[in-house]
């Protein structure tokens, strides 16, 4: 097995069909933002502390009322049965074993109730054209015992993912949007040109999603409400006023607006805007325990981890990947002289 979290991608590439590999790895447009995420994280420096008598760093925390053994959650990711026959259930079981929340995607290929039974879960919601279906999904997530509702706010339409367009990518018949059964089946239709996934989202998602709709969601649920896809501090303040409990600073892993800043570069201004009033997570580009230290030192309360866990899922070993990530985080904390996550937040960061 790979020695580092980043090592799972090349190992998975050897076993996946090229089109599936591109679906996971690709970004939108020229993939400028996709690459910017890594470049920005790589450029951040962290100044270690010394002689702190640190032996066993404590990585435990609480995110949105959910106790966590590590300061992270598994990011919401669609159609995981593309990577492994057990799909979401295998990755959710790994999250449960690691003691971290699993975020269920609206577009999961396993019904949300089965996933929520396998792991402490949050539910990720897309705003759909059918408001009754949106309400039903919120109700189902609540009844299934999900601990938070994460609303994705940066996908009015799907960014043009040129790898999928070139591949004419469509879902195989056995992989379905299990929470939308009998709805929006276009994701399975091989397009004459373009991406069937993009055609599916164009039909299903409502690009006119607004703050008023978010207020409707806030009234509909008592669950902690998190907005995923915030980059501008002005939007962070509006989210606070609208009753959101948390934010995910994210550019969708470089898969939406190609030209957006790296998520880590947007983090500080969002933190400055909302202070301690909200839980703030960082998504987009996390590939190591050292990356988590950088995010927390820049003010995040935790991170979402996405693509590396899909690569590990393709190999059938997501639990190993989370174990590797936990080890990397503890090693990074030891090397930075941090006994706990409070000490990590106090580290000085710079830019190479």
From TrEMBL:
Keywords recorded for this protein, A-Z: Flavoprotein, FMN, Oxidoreductase
EC number: 1.1.3.46
Residues annotated as catalytic: 252
Chain ranges of the FMN hydroxy acid dehydrogenase domain: 1-352
Organism: Kribbella sandramycini
Record protein name field: 4-hydroxymandelate oxidase
Residues at which glyoxylate binds: 126, 161, 252, 255
Protein family according to the UniProt entry: Belongs to the FMN-dependent alpha-hydroxy acid dehydrogenase family.
GO molecular function, one term: oxidoreductase activity, acting on CH-OH group of donors
Keyword Oxidoreductase belongs to the record: yes
Cofactor requirements of the protein: FMN
Keyword Lyase in record: no
PANTHER family, sorted: 2-HYDROXYACID OXIDASE 1 (PTHR10578:SF107), S -2-HYDROXY-ACID OXIDASE-RELATED (PTHR10578)
Residues engaged in binding FMN: 76-78, 105, 124, 152, 228, 250, 283-287, 306-307
